[in-house]
Design brief:
Blueprint lengths: L26 E3 L5 E3 H6 L15 H8 L5 E4 L17 H12 L5 E8 L2 E8 L10 H17 L3 E7 L7 H20 L4 E9 L13 E4 L10 H8 L10 H6 L5 E2 L5 H12 L7
Parallel strand pairs: 5-6, 6-7, 7-8, 8-9
Antiparallel strand pairs: 1-2, 3-4, 4-5
Helix pairs in contact: 4-5
InterPro entries: AcCoA_carboxyl_beta, Acetyl_CoA_COase_Trfase_b_su, ClpP/crotonase-like_dom_sf, COA_CT_N
EC number: 2.1.3.15
Subunit structure: Acetyl-CoA carboxylase is a heterohexamer composed of biotin carboxyl carrier protein (AccB), biotin carboxylase (AccC) and two subunits each of ACCase subunit alpha (AccA) and ACCase subunit beta (AccD).
């Protein structure tokens, strides 16, 4: 799992567990070489002001952006995964879980919460890539299912923010079951005529893409996000051909009909609420 994503830029390879969702220290250097103060970056919604690069962020930052005054009630915050398969790779899965929890302060790769956004109540489920590559295990699926149930019970919109390397191999079939489980829950949400907004961020891949990430009433993304099932290298090796420029970026995916629109992070809260207002026939808020 530690080698799911390796970035090959200027000869550097960064393993999943070494990546950080948000910049640390006084300065941040974007992939294009632009330097920005971390404090300025935070004020700019974690978007590099010079090159508009959207830095990877986690649930903490998205909740700050989307919930009014950063006020929300977290749901099911103490659920954590077990190790039913006694899985061992380079280390025991139970040890990997403990290390990820200590490093990130999270119980698993997702947080769910309910609060108000532009005055309207909403349930938000947000994945954290810093926790074992945002992999989708049984806890991720269960928390999404419960968040959907909460939105259905309260009759409020549901926003899913995906940021994942796909299914968690250490949980095998238990992980894959979550694709069907979350899809079934979303079908129930649709039957109840409750809005579901899916936000695909960088990266949204694997089983996540094959299930809830692409089942929104409206599917949206941020600029430059990687969205796909298999990675570009795997696809290229499979088809034996060079891939189009920008393959699997959010812009490419939108052009081919899998996204409804792409929004800058500073406009995210307004765009989500605009859609909710329109679909619920509410007065549009400025």
């Amino acid at each position: 799992m530690s080698s799911w994503f390796k970035r090959k830029e200027k000869g550097i390879q960064t393993a999943t567990e070494e990546k950080k969702d948000t910049p640390k220290g006084l300065w941040y250097k974007s992939p294009t070489g632009k330097i920005v103060e971390s404090e300025e970056l935070a004020k700019n919604y974690y978007v590099s002001p010079e090159d508009d690069y959207h830095v990877r962020i986690g649930s903490k930052e998205y909740f700050e952006i989307l919930f009014d005054d950063n006020k929300f009630k977290e749901l099911d915050e103490n659920i954590s995964s077990k190790d039913p398969l006694k899985f061992v790779d380079t280390k025991k899965y139970s040890e990997r879980l403990k290390a990820a929890q200590q490093k990130t302060g999270l119980t698993d790769a997702i947080r769910t919460a309910v609060g108000k956004s532009m005055g309207k109540e909403i349930v938000i489920a947000c994945m954290d890539f810093s926790f074992i590559g945002g992999s989708m295990g049984s806890v991720v699926g269960e928390k999404i299912a419960r968040a959907i149930d909460h939105a259905k019970k309260k009759k409020v919109p549901f926003l899913m923010i995906s940021k994942s390397g796909g299914a968690r191999m250490m949980e095998a079939a238990l992980s894959l079951m979550q694709l069907a489980k979350t899809s079934a829950k979303l079908a129930q949400l649709a039957e109840a005529k409750i809005p579901y907004i899916s936000l695909c961020t960088d990266p949204t891949t694997g089983g996540t893409t094959a299930s809830y990430a692409m089942l929104g009433d409206i599917n949206i993304s941020e600029p430059g996000a990687l969205i796909g099932f298999a990675g570009p290298r795997v696809v290229k090796d499979t088809v034996g051909k060079d891939l189009p420029e920008g393959f699997q970026t959010s812009e490419f995916v939108k052009e081919h009909g899998f996204l409804d629109f792409i929004t800058h992070r500073k406009d995210l809260k307004k765009k989500v609420n605009l859609y909710i207002d329109l679909i619920q026939n509410l007065p549009v808020r400025e």
